[in-house]
Specification:
147 residues, 2 helices, elongated, five-stranded mixed beta sheet, four-stranded mixed beta sheet, 9 strands, mainly beta
């Protein structure tokens, strides 16, 4: 699990378990780039924010050199719901709200997990600041995992 907020901070054990299990709600993991995670404890709401996403693939070489290619995902919503102690609130955001929103399209779940308030967001695309999770070398067709 990686976080772009503070890469040296280790999450609590229960949160690591939760984020890894939430990532399993993303189907067809063999075909897509690495999965990233951002977590943050919001003291105002006494709530853990967990954001899970599939990273982009950067093209290396050829006419599309440097292009970031997002991965399309399918989500098992029922799997994500089962991670919560009780039925969570579920929301779909179809675009950025407001315009400078960094997470764009996503499904979110809000509820209690092992006695902790959690706001889980599973993004349709990786946030820009996450960077590519793998490279596609055009000359060889090789995929290189970065994280």
């Amino acid at each position: 699990m990686s976080t772009w907020l503070n890469p040296t901070a280790a999450p609590p054990a229960w949160l690591r378990w939760f984020a890894n299990d939430a990532a399993r709600a993303i189907l067809d993991t063999a075909a897509h780039a690495p999965i990233g995670c951002h977590y943050h404890f919001g003291e105002e709401r006494n709530e853990w924010e967990v954001t899970v996403f599939v990273s982009d693939t950067e093209v290396v070489g050829g006419p599309r050199d440097g292009t970031l290619v997002p991965c399309r995902i399918q989500l098992d919503v029922s799997h994500a719901i089962e991670l919560f102690d009780e039925m969570p609130g579920i929301h779909w955001q179809a675009g950025p709200i407001p315009e400078e929103d960094e997470v764009d399209e996503h499904v979110s779940f809000e509820g209690c997990v092992r006695g902790h308030q959690v706001w889980l967001r599973i993004l349709a695309q990786a946030p820009r600041q996450a960077g590519p999770g793998r490279l596609l070398h055009v000359s060889t067709g090789e995929l290189e995992e970065l994280w």
